[in-house]
Amino acid sequence: CVILNEVMKTYHMYHAESISAESKLKEAEKQEEKQIGRSGDPVFHIRLEERHQRRSSVKKIEKMKEKRQAKYSENKLKSIKARNEYLLTLEATNASVFKYYIHDLSDLIDCCDLGYHASLNRALRTYLSAEYNLETSRHEGLDIIENAVDNLEPRSDKQRFMEMYPAAFCPPMKFEFQSHMGDEVSNCAQQPVQAELMLRYQQLQSRLATLKIENEEVKKTTEATLQTIQDMVTIEDYDVSECFQHSRSTESVKSTVSETYLSKPSIAKRRANQQETEQFYFMVRLLLPQPLLGLGSGVPKRCFWSCIGITWGSLLKSRLLSTL
Predict the structure, then answer these.
(1) Which residues contact 28 (CB under 8 A, 6 or more apart)?
(2) Is 318 inside a domain boundary?
(3) Domain containing 50: what range?
(4) DSSP string, 104-159
(5) Residue 216 burial (C-beta neighbours within 10 Å; 0-12, 13-18, 19+)
(6) Are residues 102 and 171 in contact, defined by beta-carbon separation less than 8 angstroms?
(7) pLDDT tens, 94-111?
(8) Least confident interval from 26-30, 71-75, 201-205
């Protein structure tokens, strides 16, 4: 927005200078016409000095007109270039804002809550397995909890979360072109502005092609890493029926769990590998060319996403409790 404002001010300044130069040129043309009209009067009764003075005045006016004509052409060219730069910046800004609210916010939320639903699903299923083996008379309550776990859906929860806070996640209105003193957007670019625009277009096309190739490579890496993480967080290891094969007492369950489940070396190794993979995935996602324009609220990014995480967890918790 700062860059857009600066480009707009530059365009308005050059356009004002162009209008001023045009008015001065018209004034010089009027003076020239007036002087020519005087010189056309009968000269038989005019003295030689007056004739010479009139010729000198005509030459001065012609020189002044030429200077103002050159100044007007220069300012007009600057105004056209500044207007085109303003239009390009305006379109790029609107495209960046649209991409941020439509695509980037969703991707950032996916990065922040990656594995959350799978971890919650596994934790609750572990609880369900223990309860089913402890007390069969509680099947009705456990079935309700199991139904709530089965209804956990990342996409719908994310959509519901974003709909609850439209001020933060809905794109604002597009920036509109603000014409200056009757200037029109429909004016066609002239030489040498047209050649400069074509060169600019070719450079942008070349840069976009390079970025597309780089983005595809990074995308392949992120997809492979994401699949690895999803495989890690969706392991069906919530069945603890082996803990209840000998005794159903609470102390026996605690002892069996500590000896056979939580103390497995593979769990610590798996968690370390998962954390390392998650850190790599998040860093790779940051390499993607995403032109974020800032949060716009003056709140630091870390604090902003921490608040989102707290609200996100509260939303899922309230949904689960309402189901129960």
Answers:
(1) 61, 64, 65, 68
(2) no
(3) 1-109
(4) IHHHHHHHHTTTHHHHHHHHHHHHHHHHHHH-GGGHHHHHHHHHHHHT--HHHHHH
(5) exposed
(6) yes
(7) 999 999 999 888 888 888
(8) 26-30
Band (pLDDT 50/70/90 cuts) for residue 24 is: confident
pLDDT digits (tens, 9 = 90+) for 125-164: 998 888 887 877 777 777 888 888 888 888 888 888 889 9
Q: Which two tokens stand for residue 241?
A: 């029926």
Number of domains in the chain: 1
The C-alpha atoms of residue 11 and residue 81 are separated, in whole angstroms, by: 8
> How many helices and strands, by DSSP H and E, does the chain display?
11, 0
83, exposed or middle or buried, with CB in 10 Å at 0-12, 13-18, 19+? buried
Report residue 310 as tokens. Answer: 């707290």
Quick check: is 299 in a domain? no
| 230-283: pLDDT as tens digits | 787 777 777 777 777 765 555 555 555 555 445 556 777 777 777 887 777 777
Residue 3's contacts (CB-CB under 8 Å, 6 or more residues apart) are 89, 93
Q: 156 in a domain, yes or no?
A: no
Q: Which residues are within 8 A (CB) of 196 and not within 5 positions of it... i.e. 6 or more apart?
A: 81
φ, ψ at 64 (rounded to 5°):
-60, -40
Cα gap 29→65, rounded to integer Å: 7
Within-domain flag for 202:
no
